[in-house]
Amino acid sequence: MNAPLLTYRMTVEQFLDWMDARVAALPYDEPKWELFDGVPEMQEHETWRHAQSKLSITLAIRDAIRRSGLAYEVGIDGLGVRIGPKESYQPEAVVFPKGLIAETDRHAPQPIVVVEVLSPSTRSKDLKIKAEGYGRVASIEHYLVIDPETREVLHYRRRGEGLVPEPEALSSGTLRLEPPGLELDVAGMMG
Questions:
Q1: Strand, coil or helix: what is 143?
Q2: Is the pTM higher than 0.85?
Q3: Tens of each residue's pLDDT in the chain, 191 residues
Q4: What is the pLDDT of residue 6?
Q5: How far is residue 154 from each of residues 19, 42, 53, 72, 164, measured CA to CA in Å?
Q6: Cβ-based neighbour number of residue 127 at 10 Å
Q7: What distance in Å separates the CA atoms of residue 158 and residue 6, rounded to the nearest whole number?
Q8: Which of 3-11's residues contact partners 24+ apart within 8 Å by CB, and which partners?
Q9: By C-alpha distance, which of 140, 44, 30 is closest to 93?
């Protein structure tokens, strides 16, 4: 399912060119791809539950940004987060400072919050590999993992050079993301 396609390691720039060539050659919508240590991996197609979770969290973040009056934007599907020269992830949602992105950009500039929604096939990668990868991006202060099965939000926050290894699990109440200063209703994030 998420099997690597190539035997050599791509840079992020090569990966973006490779994706452009695929999209141009295919008569149908291209699935979502991510780059792990230079190897592109196709992600599974979303279920209705996954799509609803992604929509709920994105709307909750958008509304929190509006309420706060802070100069941030929330991006969804397709806007990547560059982890390193050979790693690029595609979170469900990403928050970054307003005014830094161009129409043709493919990666969020200075991401501060990233969100993934768990699925059975991505659980291990989201909770281990991506948590470690997002922790290497100095601007990322919060990594939120939505678990549609348990209806919990797992909140990894920055501590020193990375993210805390054990996230806080929340199923109700208010989640304050400081910085940048956003408040999210946990139940509202679940839809």
A1: strand
A2: yes
A3: 444 455 679 999 999 998 888 878 876 777 788 899 999 988 887 889 989 999 999 999 999 999 999 999 999 988 999 999 999 999 999 999 999 999 999 999 999 999 999 988 889 999 999 999 999 999 999 999 999 999 999 999 999 999 999 999 999 999 999 999 999 999 988 87
A4: 56
A5: 31, 24, 14, 22, 11
A6: 17
A7: 33
A8: 3/41, 3/42, 4/39, 4/40, 4/41, 5/39, 5/40, 5/42, 6/39, 6/40, 8/38, 9/37, 9/38, 9/39, 9/86, 10/35, 10/38, 10/39, 10/40, 10/86, 11/38, 11/85, 11/86
A9: 140
Q: Which two tokens stand for residue 61?
A: 């973040």
> How many angstroms separate the CA atoms of 101 and 181, rounded?
21
| Residue type present at position 8 | Y
Confirm if 6 and 40 have CB atoms less than 8 A apart. Answer: yes
Give the whole-angstrom CA distance, residue 6 versus residue 10: 9
Token representation of residue 162: 């990375």
| Contact by Cβ (8 Å): 81, 64 | no
Query: Which pair of tokens denotes residue 155?
Result: 């909140």
